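Risk mitigation, structural track. In case the binding assays with iron/sulfur cluster fail to produce interpretable data, a predicted complex structure has been prepared as a fallback.
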Amino acid sequence: MNAVEKAQVIHERLLERYGEQTERPHLEPVAELVSTILSQNTNDRNRDVAFERLRERFPTWEEVRDAPLEEIEEAIRPAGLAQTKAPRIQGALRRLSEEQGLLTLDFLEDLPLGEARDWLTSLDGVGPKTAAIVLLFAFGRPAFPVDTHIHRVSRRLGLIPSKTSREKAHELLEELLPPEIYYTFHLNLIAHGRDTCQARRPDCPPCPLLDLCPYGQEQTAP
Ligand code: SF4
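Fallback model:
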């Protein structure tokens, strides 16, 4: 079985276990970008609380852009790292205003994918994962975000070499997987990383991917 076929079989087994993921209602792209910056180094719940507080206190992106920095920090405190994330959010909004004249990311829809990714990653604090989340979730474009779970599980499974960096993993997994499965595969691999293939204690014996997984076979060898 080659790597592409193996990825397909893994996808099918994960589908049996976690099901097809229906696309959640999209945030508009600027909201997706801000929400993704808030999600860095925290969990979904804290991200959502911080995002809601920010939107309640500053209902428009112009207000977020122009508010005193400390007020943004205070609003997003539940997401942690507020002193880092607040200037990143305002910096992104200011860049947009300067370059587009409007607080919109709609221009990314028509840019070639590589240029859209380059623009996003040129923002302070926006790496390949954040860029791919915005492109996939807000625009439905073929980008594959790699979080810590996907990075770990895909290396254990041998989908990518074990020493691959998280940045490089984006490129390799995008080459390996057909774009039509990015959305579901992304969410199902995260579910598997949380549920079964945890960082410290992967539960290999009952894992439906064991026969495809070099790491799991090593762990369960007699
Ligand atoms: S066999 Fe073990 S290491 Fe491999 S994917 Fe399953 S839980 Fe993770």
